[in-house]
Each structure stands twice: as C-alpha cells, then as structure tokens.
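Notes from the 1:1 (GR / supervisor)

We went over the backlog. Supervisor wanted to see one worked example end to end before approving the batch request, so GR pasted a single chain during the call. The sequence is below; no edits were made to it. Supervisor asked that the structure be written out right there so they could see what the output format looks like.
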Amino acid sequence: METGKMMFIINPMAGNWLNLKQQDKLIKQIRGFFGRVTIVFSEAEGENNISNLAREAQKNGCNTIVVRGGDGSLNCAINGLDLSDPSIVVGVIPAGTGNDVASTLGIPWETEEALSVIKDGHTRQIDLGIANGVCFANTISIGLDALINQKATDRKPFFQG
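Structure output shown during the call:
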C-alpha cells in the first residue's frame, strides 16, 4: 500500500492498558511493518489528545492516520480531521473494550494481523454520522442507552476505550 506520510496514534489507556514493555513491543511491531513512521502516545486531555494529534498530523501532510484504541479513540481521531479531504485514510488497530467499528469492518483484533490489513492496503469508504456537530462512525444513542453510556464513562478508569 502506498501510504504516503503516516502517523500512528496510540491510546495507552484503551482496553487493556499498555505498560512500558508492551509499548516497546508495539513500537517494534509497527516499525517492522512500516519502518520509521511517526508514533505518538495520546493523553486524555491537553494538546496531546487524540483529536488534536490527528488534526496536527493532517496539517503536517499525513494522509494516513492509524489509531490504536477502541471506538472512542477512533471517534476522537475522526473528529480532529478535515474529512472533506478525499486523500485522508484512517486505520484502526483494535484495542478497546468493544471494538465495534473494527469488528463490523472485519479488522482482526490481533495487532500483527491488523497491521497486515493496513500494510496490504485494505481500505473501504464508510458513512459517518453527525449529531450536534460531532461525527461518529458507529452508533448514536438517546434515552436509557445514552444514560448508561454516560454512567459508564463517569466510572473511568474501569471503562476505557
């Protein structure tokens, strides 16, 4: 796959948290597939949050943004990007608790298998929704579902993704 300029955004808090040894292994796996690409670790808030990192990567000429995280991490990246740019490609390495988007798209949950899908250039256009100015790639809920989701989010760090 001709990936152009790539950035990998890693959410170390997604799903099963990454300790330093696991972070080193992940970096080696990514570099084994893609060489010397930019890899950054996100923070929950501040300038290194996922949306800001994705936005800055695109501004700096990255046309492929790969997120290691769950559905929440993926949505944060999508909301940081100028999606009117037809050259932008967003990839995902599933690492959340549910990984619904990755599962729906048939992306393997194993890191090396997901990296292989990206390397081999398996891309697909998907529809995104917008509600109150916020993009989403998965689902939107109202009522009880939304309340349960908010309560789960408030119980962090148990629920991460």
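Supervisor's comment: Residues 6-154 form a domain with the Rossmann fold fold (CATH 3.40.50.10330).
Batch request approved.
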